[in-house]
């Protein structure tokens, strides 16, 4: 059940990150989910590092850090994906 939640959270965070980033991203959905999952892990690591990973009630700081992590990872993933697509199209000609 943990992997299912990780995929759902990755999907939601990845899509939110794509909506926040300006312009159009060329990431496929499967890579958006993976970037969202990695961003969530990054946000959890940062929240643990600063000591706000487990608070009473809703962990708003942790959730915001997860979203910020997803935005960063989606931006990096999109840049790498776009560069890979450009490199493939120029070598195919």
TrEMBL record:
The chain crosses the membrane at residues 29-52, 64-83. Pfam families: Transgly_assoc. It is found in: Cell membrane. The keyword Cell wall biogenesis/degradation does not apply. GO terms for cellular component: plasma membrane. Keywords: Cell membrane, Membrane, Transmembrane, Transmembrane helix. It is a multi-pass membrane protein. InterPro entries: Transgly_assoc. Belongs to the UPF0410 family. This is Uncharacterized membrane protein YeaQ/YmgE, transglycosylase-associated protein family. It comes from Actinacidiphila cocklensis.
């Amino acid at each position: 059940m943990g992997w299912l939640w990780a995929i759902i959270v990755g999907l939601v965070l990845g899509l939110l990150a794509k909506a926040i980033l300006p312009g159009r991203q060329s990431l496929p959905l499967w890579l958006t989910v993976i970037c969202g999952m990695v961003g969530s892990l990054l946000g959890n690591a940062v929240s643990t590092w600063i000591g706000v990973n487990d608070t009473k009630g809703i962990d708003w700081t942790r959730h915001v850090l997860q979203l910020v992590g997803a935005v960063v990872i989606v931006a990096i993933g999109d840049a790498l994906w776009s560069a890979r697509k450009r490199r493939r199209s120029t070598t195919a000609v």
